[in-house]
Amino acid sequence: MVDIKKATLSSNVWENFYDRIKAQVTSVSNSDCTIRNVQTVTSSFPDQEIDNKDAYPIIVIETPTISWDGPATFSLTKKKALISINIEVFDSKSESAEKLLDSVNNAIETYRNDLKDLGLRFVKLDSTDSDEVFRGKIKVHIRRVTWTMEFVFTATRTY
Amino acid sequence: MIITVNQSDSRRYRRFSIKLPKNVEEALKKDTTNISKMIQKSAKLRAPRWTGKLAESIKVKPSTKGSVVEVGMPYGMYQEFGFRPHFVQAFRSTGSGFVVADWAAAHGVQLAKNSIFVSKHRPFIKPAVDNTIPKISDLLSKSIAQAIKKS
User: Fold this and answer.
1) Is B26 left (phi over 0), alpha (psi -120 to 50) or beta?
2) In terms of domains, do B35 and B108 share one?
3) B45/A50 Cβ within 8 A
4) How many domains does chain B have?
5) Residues B63 and B115 placed together within one structural domain of the fold
6) What ipTM describes this predicted complex?
7) B135 touches chain A (CB under 8 A)
8) Under a CB-based contact definition with an 8 Å cutoff, are residues A77 and A154 in contact?
C-alpha cells in the first residue's frame, strides 16, 4: 500500500492498483483444465508483443484520469478530485479473459476498505466493455473495466 | 393542483439556464477527445504490423471542431482503402526504412522474378470506428447527465 498524497495523486493511485492486481491476479484456470498465467501487468500495451501468442494474457492498468469537482460537501476549504482508472485484459482465449477481468474486479472490490483508509472514497465499478481483434493467426479478446472513485484534499487558498 | 413558484425558484432556474449550455458544451468537447482516443486505441490494435511504425503513427490531434485521428504513414491509406493487385519489385522501399525484400524475408514470402505479388489489404480505421460508434450514445448520455447535475 502506498500513501496517497495530493502532490502525487495520479502516481500513488496507479501504484496502489498495480500492487493489488499484481499480487492478486496471477492466474486463472479454464474449463479445459488449462491454467493461464498472467504474463505482464503494465501501464501501456506492449506493442512489440501484439502478435506473440505466448505473451498473453496481458493486463494493462492505464494512468488514472483526474478532474476536480466543486468543494466537498460541508466544507469550504476542501476540494474533491474525481478519479477514473481503466483496466484492460488482453488474452488469446475468451474464457480466461473473462475470468481475469472478474479476478481484477474482485481484487479491487475486496480492497475497498483499504482504499478508503488511504483516502479513496466511493470506489465503484463504472462500466465494462469488450472487444475482439483478429491478428493474423490469433484472435485477441479484450475486456475493459472502468473504476471510479473520489479523493478529498485541502486545496491551496487563493484569497 | 397548485404550483407555487417563488422568487428563489426563479433565481435558481435563471442560474441553471445560464450554466447548462456552458457545462454541456464543455462535456461534449471532452467527449469528442475521448471518442477520438477510443478510435485511436482500437485502430492501433487493428493496424497491420511489421515494424510497428504504422500503428505508432496513429495520433489524436486537436482541431477547431474537436479532435482528429490522423494516420501519419502514407502507406496507411492503401491498407485502409485497398489497391489494385500488382507486383512490387524487391528493391522498393516499404516506407518504413526497409525494402520489400526485407519484408518478404521476414514473412517467408518467396520472391518471383525479384518481385512479390500483393493483393490483400487490411482496413484498421473503419473497423475501429464501427467498434466505437455503439459506445458513443452511452458516453454522451453519461456526460450530459453529469453536466445537468453540475448545473
Assistant:
1) alpha
2) no
3) yes
4) 2
5) no
6) 0.76
7) yes
8) yes
**Has residue B125 been placed in a domain?**
no
In CATH terms, A9-154 corresponds, of 3.40.190.10, 3.30.2000.10, 1.10.8.60, 3.30.1130.10, to 3.30.2000.10
Which of helix, strand or coil describes residue A86?
strand
Residue at grid coordinates 472490490? A109
- CA A145 to mean position of chain CA atoms: 7
Q: Which three cell numbers stand for residue A15?
A: 501504484
Domain boundaries, chain A: 9-154
B2 within domain boundaries: no
pTM: 0.82
The alpha-carbon gap from B103 to the nearest alpha carbon of chain A, in Å, equals 16
- B-chain CB neighbours of A146 within 8 Å are none
Contact status, residue A11 vs residue A64, Cβ threshold 8 Å: no
Residues B139 and B67 in one domain: yes
Residue B64 shares a structural domain with residue B97: no
Out of B45, B135, B150, closest to residue A129 by CB: B135
Q: Say yes or no for a CB contact (<8 Å) between A142 and B55.
A: no
Of A48, A51, A133, the CB nearest to B46: A133
Smallest Cβ–Cβ distance between B49 and the set A51, A70, A140 belongs to A51
CA–CA min distance A133, chain B (Å): 6
Per-residue pLDDT in tens (0 to 9) along chain B, 151 residues: 787 777 777 888 888 888 888 988 888 888 898 899 999 999 998 988 888 888 889 999 988 878 899 999 888 898 899 888 888 888 888 877 888 888 888 888 888 888 888 888 889 999 999 989 988 988 889 888 888 888 8
In Å, how far is B46's CA from the nearest CA of chain A? 6
Preceding peptide of B123 cis, ω within 30°: no
Contact residues on chain A for B131, CB-CB shorter than 8 A:
131
Q: Which domain holds residue B107?
A: 84-120
The answer to the question of residue B142 being in a domain is yes
CA A136 to chain centre: 28
For residues B115 and B137, membership in a common domain is answered with: no
